[in-house]
């Protein structure tokens, strides 16, 4: 503890001192002593030294009222009684004004989504695609259950057209993939040729 702390001990008060009124000089002396104590303790004011410093009062806003004094009012468009505090949140069935914006500003750019028609598939997947088209129920779970039961009960000869279709799709997908790899190798070779030409 580097700093010294000055403690002021109160003197015993006599009866004469109690009855006598303090002079203006004594009052000033007491105030300077208190301010010195506050400075030594690092407080900006005596309020900071008090156990219960005065609090700032919070401002309380009154509840909004209608002209007649009630806390509710009727909506002009739908006629429903609405609390005034929630009136700005009230949405009635009126026509909303649709804000039209420029196409280039608000819309996202058109991203070409990849088609999955040429992706590799199993024979069961090909069968399920055709089964969903012929099925009349809307429930997806029952369609899947019925399709699986039908596939299990089919013989190998009944499954043959779906197997052939799946092999055809898988073969065309593999062929397209190999062509893409060949094109990629050509691009890489072209890149190396151009980069070596630029460095020379």
TrEMBL record:
Biological processes, Gene Ontology terms: polar nucleus fusion
GO molecular function: DNA binding
Annotated GO CC locations: nucleus
Source superkingdom: Eukaryota
Full protein name: HMG box domain-containing protein
Organism per entry: Carya illinoinensis
């Amino acid at each position: 503890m580097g700093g010294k702390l000055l403690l002021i001990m109160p003197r015993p008060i006599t009866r004469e001192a109690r009855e006598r009124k303090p002079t203006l000089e004594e009052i000033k002396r007491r105030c300077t002593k208190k301010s010195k104590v506050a400075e030594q303790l690092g407080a900006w004011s005596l309020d900071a030294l008090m156990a219960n410093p005065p609090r700032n009062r919070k401002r309380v806003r009154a509840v909004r009222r209608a002209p007649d004094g009630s806390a509710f009012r009727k909506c002009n468009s739908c006629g429903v009684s609405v609390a005034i505090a929630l009136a700005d949140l009230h949405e009635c069935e009126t026509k909303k004004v649709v804000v039209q914006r420029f196409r280039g500003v608000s819309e996202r750019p058109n991203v070409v989504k990849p088609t999955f028609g040429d992706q590799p598939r199993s024979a069961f997947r090909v069968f399920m695609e055709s089964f969903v088209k012929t099925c009349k129920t809307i429930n997806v779970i029952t369609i899947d259950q019925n399709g699986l039961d039908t596939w299990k009960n089919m013989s190998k000869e009944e499954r043959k057209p779906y197997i052939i279709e799946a092999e055809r799709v898988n073969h065309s997908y593999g062929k397209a993939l190999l062509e893409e790899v060949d094109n990629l190798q050509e691009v890489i070779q072209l890149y190396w040729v151009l980069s070596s030409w630029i460095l020379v």
